[in-house]
Design brief:
six-stranded mixed sheet; Aminopeptidase; single chain; binds zinc ion; alpha/beta
Amino acid sequence: MSGHRSHRVREEGTGSPGIRSVRGLACALALVSSVSFAFEGAWAQAADGADRSSQDRFDVVVLDAGHGGHDEGATGPSGLREKDLVLDVSRRLAKKLGKRGIRIVMTRTGDRFLSLEERTSVANDARGDLFLSIHANASPSRRPRGIETYFASLDATDDDARKTAERENEAFGESAKRYQRDDPLAAILGSLIETQHLQESSEFAKLAQHELVEIGRARSRGVKQAPFVVLLGVQMPASLVEIGFLSNPDEEKGLRRAARREEIASALDAAIGAFAARYDARRGVRVSRSSEN
Ligand SMILES: [Zn+2]
């Protein structure tokens, strides 16, 4: 498909689905209260203003290497597996971020399957300042290539984005279904979650895409939105990168190379550094970081 670049960012407070009945509202509120632990955490933090600046400082990143275990993700024509590729890139990135004095929490460090609940609870328990999920793309055709960065929405930017999210959500099975658009309660819950950190998620996605497409021979497919359930389940700014198409033999060959993986990790490290500086500035935090590249 052509590099369709639709940047569809919904402003906070708009685009939420209508609540059509009192009973619907009651159900929605019950559902919302059942997941309110995440919001309570935020309120408790806000109420405790004693050392606000150190609490709000950008210092924890959750890295989510996609797939693992029996869920291999995409596989390239010469056999490169997404689950192995993205874990290696995540490790390289973690090493770089460590040098910035940022604490890294990885959803997985080995070849193991994690349920949707496990993945999101690792992130939410860590109270990360950013959640970054790393994946590689695939298509039935060998031709598509390029890098795209996502942030969450219940609606997809385009058909390709919707298919990508469907493929990435597949391994989560039944857990993924609660975020389907045709379930009105899920729609209400989902739009609450997605609006909470929408602006910062969008900002990070743009920074990441900007850095990633600076890499040689990288083609930009743009910043997009789609209902990736892993992004909808975390309570922090969140983004998902597709670092290339494993189904494209040329890109698969590139992604086998350590140098290419280092370039990708460096680009993401730079994007996180830039995001951290803006994040702290917005919250009035002055930080001298050990390594600003
Ligand atoms: Zn994936």
